[in-house]
Each structure stands twice: as structure tokens, then as C-alpha cells.
């Protein structure tokens, strides 16, 4: 499955997004599920799914779906 | 990367122009602050020779005045303090300010933790986040620290009881490599130290970050030195860093050095201790009222604040890190704390 497709699923599951949410445009604190607590769940889910370890700066910078996708590409995750 | 590099003369030289600029910035963007300055006799363009000459605001003012230097529409986050009297401080951040405070907290902590997120033991309870929409200031503090860790395990179960199995499980999995521990000071003592001592747990690879004051430990005769000594002797834990910070200067954490010996100021900050009667800075070694200084606050005029805490400066450029080395001695007595802002009101009148 392509990276963005996998990442959409991770976001939807971790943040319990209602069907039809425009995941690709999502930004931190846009919705109530993506608060600082949701962020912890999301980071752990991303690390599990893609087998990466994000460092502290990345966790802090991960402020949107787009940023997360770029971060994973930079980490060498296949498209 | 570290933010504990500037000697006191270097710090003074760097901070003074930045703080003077911030004072003008806030005067221009916060009418409320401009009024307060005018009442204090600090008119526009006042020249300052030292950081200690800059006008300070008592932290209490953030409870009664809407002090912000950004338009209402740019407010991204409003932080509130935990108020014992029902009054809470309100601190206004725009997106830039929120990002900056997070980044500076992070570089400060990374000085002692490193860039990698370590497995993390939280000396708190799982039920902290039960009510998601309104968790306490304690919950917010714990959450802020969770960014620095991974594979988080809580020491207390949902009934606030120490969960020995959970801690043992954590140590079996992660105890042979560096791991992170965070907790409020009295909880770290009461729930982790005692649990580890009584069960012979090995915490020697831990890095403990803790904050919150010693008042609740006074009846056990535990102060900072005793805390460090007994953790080291009974659990092997030696990497311990106390810190001091407040919501009114979010992003700034004064951090205890590697060998104890007091709290140190990150490069973008400083501390002054004042006599509560004359308001002059006291000689080092003399207790007084703590003033905290930070170049971070741009969205609200919180760059120079008089706290309601008592403290003492132990030395300057004589410790593990450069700059001032100080301790917090506790809260000011209530009347005296009120006095701080009364003096201010008199100056205004």
C-alpha cells in the first residue's frame, strides 16, 4: 500500500476520525481528537505502522498530515 | 546542543538590549501594559543600564488584567495557571509563541535527556486523563513532558495505588539502558523512591526530571540534598534534575545541574532576587523574592516578572554550568505576596 494510504489509515484509527474526514488537510488542534493527548497516540501508531523511531524534535514538529508524510519519506519509508 | 553556555557578563550583554526592545514592543502592542508602565514612571524610551533596572510586573497581574500584545483574532492558545484561590492567570499565545515555547522547552530538556526519546516511567496515575476535555494543570504538565519519552508506563494505577507489576515490567524491558522518569517531586518520593527501596528495584539507568516544590516533603525531613542522596544510595538513581518554571513564563525551565548545587538559567533567561522591602537586588546568599526574566514572551508582556516565590542565589559562574546558580525556598507568605502587588498599586496611584 502506498505511504499516504497507510498514513491515512493510521490517522483515522489513532484519532478516531469520522468517515469522510479530509485527512490530507488535517492540522494539529484542527479537531478536538488531535489534542496533545491524541498526539501521543498518533505518534505511537505511526511508529508502530512504519517501524520508525521519531526523535523529540520530530514529535514536536509533526503538526499536520503533510508534515508526517514528508517525515516518513525523509526516514526512507517507500512510497 | 545546549542552552547553558553564557557567563553572567555575556548574558547581561545579550539580554539587556533584547529585553529593552521587548519592553517597547509590548508598550506598543498592549495598551494595558503601556498604562502600567506609565504609572510606574517608565515612560517610552527610558534607557536601562542593567537588566535589574527593567520594570517588572508582579505575576498576580495576569490574574486580573488582560495582558496580551497580539490581536484577539491571533490567539491560538490561552494557558491558565492552577489557582488555589480560584483566580487563574491567563497567558495568551499566538501560533508562533506556542511553537517557540515548545521548542525552547525541548532544547532545554534535551541538554540532559538527549535528542532521542527514551522509554519513560511517569510517576503519576493513568486516570489523570480520564476527563479529556478538562484535565488539571498537573495533567497538562505531565502531557508536556510525555513528548520526551516513548513506551510510557504509569507508576500508579487507576485507583492511585503504586503498580509494582507495571514498574517491574517496565524495568525488565528497559531497565538495562537509559530511561526517563518524570514526576512531581513529592510523588517521585512517595511513590517511586519508597516503592523502589522497599522492593529493591534498580533505577541506576534512569534520568529523573522532577518539579513542584518541597512543602509536602517537609514533614519527612526531605530536602533536595537528602532526595538526591537517598535516591542514589537506595535505588542507584544519580541522574536527577529538579526544575522550576511557571505558566506565566512558558517555555522557560530553570534546570538543576548534573551535580545538584542549584538551578541554572538557560541562555535566554536570568534570575534576580530582591529584598521584599526595598526591592533592591540582595547580595548572593541572602534570601528574597524571585524575579524571573525571559526573552521568549512576545505575545504577552511576561518578559520580566516578579514571582511570589522566595529564593536565594548561591553563586555566579562557579558551578557545573555558567551563570547564576539558585534555589527556590518556597512560597512567600500570603500577606507578603499580596504586598508585592500592593506596592505596585501604590506606585500606580
TrEMBL record, chain A:
Q: A Pfam family this protein belongs to?
A: PP-binding
Recorded hits in PROSITE patterns, A to Z, give: CARRIER
Signal peptide annotation: none
Tell me the ranges covered by the Carrier domain, including all copies: 1-76
What is the protein name given in its UniProt record? Acyl carrier protein
User: What's the gene?
Assistant: acpP_2
TrEMBL record, chain B:
Record-linked Pfam families: LuxE (PF04443)
Taxonomic lineage from the root: Bacteria, Bacillati, Actinomycetota, Actinomycetes, Micromonosporales
Every Acyl-protein synthetase LuxE domain range: 19-347
**Signal sequence annotation:** none
Q: Which InterPro entries match?
A: ANL_N_sf, LuxE
GO molecular function annotation: long-chain fatty acid--protein ligase activity
Task: Provide the protein name.
Answer: Acyl-protein synthetase
Q: Name one GO biological process term.
A: bioluminescence
Amino acid at each position: 500500500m502506498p505511504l499516504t494510504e497507510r498514513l491515512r489509515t493510521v490517522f483515522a484509527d489513532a484519532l478516531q476520525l469520522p468517515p469522510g474526514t479530509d485527512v490530507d488537510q488535517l492540522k494539529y488542534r484542527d479537531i478536538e481528537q488531535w489534542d496533545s493527548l491524541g498526539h501521543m497516540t498518533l505518534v505511537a501508531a505511526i511508529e508502530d505502522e512504519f517501524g520508525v523511531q521519531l526523535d523529540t524534535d520530530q514529535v514536536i514538529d509533526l503538526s499536520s498530515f503533510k508534515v508526517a508524510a514528508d517525515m516518513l519519506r525523509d526516514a526512507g519509508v517507500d512510497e | 546542543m545546549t542552552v547553558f553556555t553564557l557567563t553572567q557578563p555575556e548574558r547581561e550583554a545579550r539580554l539587556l538590549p533584547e529585553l529593552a526592545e521587548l519592553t517597547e514592543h509590548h508598550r506598543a502592542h498592549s495598551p494595558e501594559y503601556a498604562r502600567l508602565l506609565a504609572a510606574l514612571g517608565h515612560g517610552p524610551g527610558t534607557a536601562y543600564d542593567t537588566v535589574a533596572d527593567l520594570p517588572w510586573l508582579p505575576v498576580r497581574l495576569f490574574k486580573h488584567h488582560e495582558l496580551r500584545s497580539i490581536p484577539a483574532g491571533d490567539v491560538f492558545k490561552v494557558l491558565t495557571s492552577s489557582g488555589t484561590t480560584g483566580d487563574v492567570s491567563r497567558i495568551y499565545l499566538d501560533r508562533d509563541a506556542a511553537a517557540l515555547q515548545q521548542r525552547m522547552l525541548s532544547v532545554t530538556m534535551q541538554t540532559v535527556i538527549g535528542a532521542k526519546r527514551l522509554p519513560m516511567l511517569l510517576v503519576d496515575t493513568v486516570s489523570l486523563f480520564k476527563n479529556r476535555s478538562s484535565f488539571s494543570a498537573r495533567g497538562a504538565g505531565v502531557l508536556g513532558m510525555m513528548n520526551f519519552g516513548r513506551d510510557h508506563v504509569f507508576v500508579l494505577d487507576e485507583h492511585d495505588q503504586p503498580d509494582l507489576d507495571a514498574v517491574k515490567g517496565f524495568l525488565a524491558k528497559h531497565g538495562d539502558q537509559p530511561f526517563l522518569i518524570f514526576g512531581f517531586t513529592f510523588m517521585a518520593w512517595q511513590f517511586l523512591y519508597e516503592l523502589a527501596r522497599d522492593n529493591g528495584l534498580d533505577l541506576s539507568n534512569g534520568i529523573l526530571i522532577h518539579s513542584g516544590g518541597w512543602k509536602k516533603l517537609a514533614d519527612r525531613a526531605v530536602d533536595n540534598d537528602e532526595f538526591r542522596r537517598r535516591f542514589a544510595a537506595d535505588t542507584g538513581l544519580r541522574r536527577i534534575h529538579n526544575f522550576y518554571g511557571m505558566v506565566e513564563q512558558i517555555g522557560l525551565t530553570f534546570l538543576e545541574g548534573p551535580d545538584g548545587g542549584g538551578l541554572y538559567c538557560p541562555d535566554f533567561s536570568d534570575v534576580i532576587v530582591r529584598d521584599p522591602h526595598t526591592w533592591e537586588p540582595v547580595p548572593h546568599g541572602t534570601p528574597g523574592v524571585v524575579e524571573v526574566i525571559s526573552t521568549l514572551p512576545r505575545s504577552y508582556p511576561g518578559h520580566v516578572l516578579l514571582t511570589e516565590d522566595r529564593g536565594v542565589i548561591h553563586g555566579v559562574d562557579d558551578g557545573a554550568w555558567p551563570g547564576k546558580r539558585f534555589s527556590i525556598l518556597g512560597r512567600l507568605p500570603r500577606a507578603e505576596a499580596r504586598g508585592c502587588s500592593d506596592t505596585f498599586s501604590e506606585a500606580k496611584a
